[in-house]
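Standup, Tuesday
Yesterday: got the pipeline producing structure tokens again.
Today: sanity-check two examples.
Blockers: none.

Example 1:
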Amino acid sequence: MRGVLSIVLLVASCSMPELPGDELSGTEKLLSRCILGQGAACHALATSPERPAQRQYQYLLLGRACALGEGAACARIGRLQAGPRPGSPPRRGFTRWALRRGCRLGNRDSCFGLAWALLARLGGPVDVPGTLAVLGDS
């Protein structure tokens, strides 16, 4: 999976304009760092106002950032996956996973999102004890 994501990110970078000399743009630096495993770079690239990521790449970048330990990215992708996505149904089981991971990483938005997901039957049955445990820990 890691190799496939790296290839996808490299292909996405091919659409970036060439710059004179050996200088890398800020976006290209972030992409390089993301490929090398820096979650903060993946998160920054996914949310960059300089070069907004296409929706499918934004999901990939946020998912990678979350997997690399960026709690804020987990909260963001959890919220994005919970709602309607163009061309595909919501991935509610993934929503719970991402929010749970973000909460374990100490991100409060993820914890509150997870509590909401547990009460709203997102990705599984209502889990009141789990919700209370999440809210009690945050």
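Example 2:
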Amino acid sequence: MNFQSAAPPKLLPVKPPENKPTRMTGTIPAGWRDDSAWADVAGEYLPEEFEGTRYLRVRVDSVNSGAAQLAAPFPDAKPGTAYEIRMSVRAPRPATFAVVLRQDGPPYKEYWRDEVRAGAPNFEEIVLETPVRRGR
């Protein structure tokens, strides 16, 4: 999602899954979804701007169990293809988070994972590359 395009992304309120309350609130880009209803977490998604850069702030207030998860669409993984994921991150204090490509539903098979550490007051560009695999 390019938050810097001429037309900002359409933003929608977080919608919890049917019959599953969530304590994650706020606004996220259309097509994205909060995937934290299984966990005991609380926080808010906040579209913001910092020094002219639009971004989505993920504020996590508490994690008692599980993890806060934001799911974004990704093209179907094709065997033998590597993908590059570019993101700009900033954090007022050091924080580590995982970027994971996995199945959207059960059994939630992970295809790729990388840990990202942020902690600069200004945005840092991070480029993650998935390895090329022969099959799924």
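Quick observation on example 2: The chain has a mean pLDDT of 81. Strands lie at 11-13, 24-29, 33-34, 40-50, 53-65, 70-71, 84-89, 95-102, 110-118, 124-129.
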